[in-house]
Amino acid sequence: MLEIDGLTRRFGDRTAVNGVSLRIPAGQMVGVIGRSGAGKSTMLRMVNRLTDPSDGRIRFEGTDVTALRGRALRDWRMRCAMIFQQFNLVQRLDVLTNVLVGRLNRRPVMTSLLRMFTAEERAMALAALDRFDLAETALQRADTLSGGQQQRVAIARAMLQEPRIILADEPIASLDPRNSRIVMESLRGVNREGITVLVNLHDLATARDYCDRIVALNAGRLVFDGPPEHLTAQRIREVYGVSEEEFAEEAAIAVGATPRHAAIAA
Prior knowledge:
The chain is an alpha/beta fold. It has 11 helices and 10 strands. It has one domain: Rossmann fold (3-Layer(aba) Sandwich), CATH 3.40.50. The chain has a 6-stranded mixed beta sheet, with helices on both faces. It has a 4-stranded antiparallel beta sheet with strand order 2-1-4-5, covered by helices on one side. A hairpin with a 2-residue loop joins β9 and β10 (221-226). The model is unreliable at 258-266 (pLDDT under 50).
């Protein structure tokens, strides 16, 4: 169980996340939606401790995540893997090495620096690539792949961390509809193995199609928390003051999607 209690983050006079509380059972897939600047990315970064909360607590299976420091914090980031919109791959390295980066926190410092991975770890990385239909790209440089392929490499890298939770921050924002579907199906497949997934999305249809639960933020506050079927067009208008189409277009443009993708999202 991931427990978030009164989570708040302030940047000077601006409050990006304001008193958010959630209980997320193990193995749930949660879509986090909201307009531009709603606090979605800040919330995920606090869960991973890339950003420290101003107030509130994060607990996981009885451990106070907000109190972790040093090695304990690095271990948490290993168990709570992060996937980013822009993939965060080392473009000049081959795909296999990028996936193996997911093992670095499990290895002694010197062998990590020398990238001395074991045969077993290399087999794990190849199996992860094969799972996402990328085995044939193992020796290619990362920058030769399409955006959708690079995001699947990022998911494979996250899986090598052997995480309990995956946080995905707008993982399909820069992808076309076909690659968006492939990436979301990959995340859903990971989730079906019992891994908790929290995914920030601008596409409401995608959130409904793939997530067990939808959480909506507005100006940093939690304004909706429930099953996808309860997030009706009327509810969106009540919460955000705009139609579903206006919400989707605004959110898609905010994360760099094209107007065509925004229309598809609606």
